[in-house]
Amino acid sequence: MSMLKVAAALAALLLIASPGFAETLTNDQVVQLSRAGLGADAIVAKIRTSDTSFDVSTDAMVALKGLGVSDAVIAAMVTSAAGGGGPVFAFDQSDSADPAAPHAAGVYLLESAPAPRMQRLDPTLADDTKVSSILGWMLTYGAMPLKVTAVLDNPTARFRADTPRPTFYFYFNQPGSGLYRNGIGTMRLDGPTPAQFTLVHFQIVGGARQALIQQVGVGRPITGGVDSVRVAFGSAEVAPGVFRVTPDAELAPGEYAFVVTPADGDNDAQTRYFDFSTAN
């Protein structure tokens, strides 16, 4: 093959690989993906890694919602449009140990080895919720509390803290960052802060993790963590929408989770457990 033909072939390959020839994602294509049954996480990942040309006007967003596009996907579309329509991943440094670096919304565990980095804790849903003392609660008109126990599958979490007093970072909606609450799932939190979370200590029972998370009865709240399993922690806002969270004291070896419950009326969300363990 002559040098002229080789040069022409290379030029063609470069043109094909250039951003100008890449697929540009539009509202109609997002609706198509949603109707095909793809989950919100998959569509958001596609948005983050694609060139986009979205209409995110009020009317367009209402239309998207009416066509069944999830809130998380619509939020990702707004994020991409705010960034000029290019791939979002270039601005997202979710594993950076620098709290000032842009991170996708979520709960992060700061790890020190083998090198400092942040590990985002994927939220877990309870596999089962056990309710006990129903008869006693009914017969005593609530004097005997109704106990609700959350059960998480597997005896240990996927993520392990490398210190007995780990540091966490909570990233919520950050003004001007173009990053939304993808790590929180579809939950909507008004004015979110770590105060809306409870740190709970789980026990291993029969190969699963269990924690008494609610007691309902006379003089007892209907929701909220139970004092016997609740672990105190403090938080400080280090940037708009970014909070550093640390337990008040060293954690005993075991299983833990930050628990957040959806707001009243948020029917499309469930209680989520951002679970981790501490080393023996």
Task: Tell me what the structure shows.
The protein has 280 residues and is α+β, with helices and mostly antiparallel strands. It folds into 2 domains: 3-91, no CATH class; 106-278, no CATH class. It has 6 helices and 15 strands. The protein has helices at residues 3-17, 27-35, 40-48, 58-66, 71-82, 134-139, and strands at 24-25, 51-52, 106-111, 117-120, 128-132, 146-152, 160-161, 168-171, 197-205, 208-216, 230-231, 233-239, 242-247, 254-260, 272-278. Strands 5, 6, 7, 9, 10, 11, 14 and 15 form an 8-stranded mixed sheet that branches. The chain has a 5-stranded antiparallel sheet with strand order 4-3-8-13-12, with no helix packed on it. A two-stranded parallel sheet has the order 1-2. The longest helix has 15 residues, at 3-17. The chain is globular and about 50 Å long. It starts with a helix and ends with a strand.
Map the helices and strands.
Blueprint (H helix, E strand, L loop, with lengths): L2 H15 L6 E2 L1 H9 L4 H9 L2 E2 L5 H9 L4 H12 L23 E6 L5 E4 L7 E5 L1 H6 L6 E7 L7 E2 L6 E4 L25 E9 L2 E9 L13 E2 L1 E7 L2 E6 L6 E7 L11 E7 L2
Parallel strand pairs: 1-2, 7-15
Antiparallel strand pairs: 3-4, 3-8, 5-6, 6-10, 8-13, 9-10, 9-11, 9-14, 12-13, 14-15
Describe the biggest sheet? Answer: 8 strands, mixed
Structural domains: how many: 2
Shape: globular
Structural class: alpha+beta
Helical fraction equals 10-25%
In terms of DSSP E residues, the strand content is 25-35%
Helix count, DSSP H or I runs of 4 or more residues: 6
* Uncertain ranges: 3-21, 85-91, 174-187
Q: What is the radius of gyration?
A: 23 Å
Strand and helix order: HEHHEHHEEEHEEEEEEEEEE
Number of strands: 15
- What's the mean pLDDT score? 75
Q: Roughly how many Å apart are the termini?
A: 65 Å
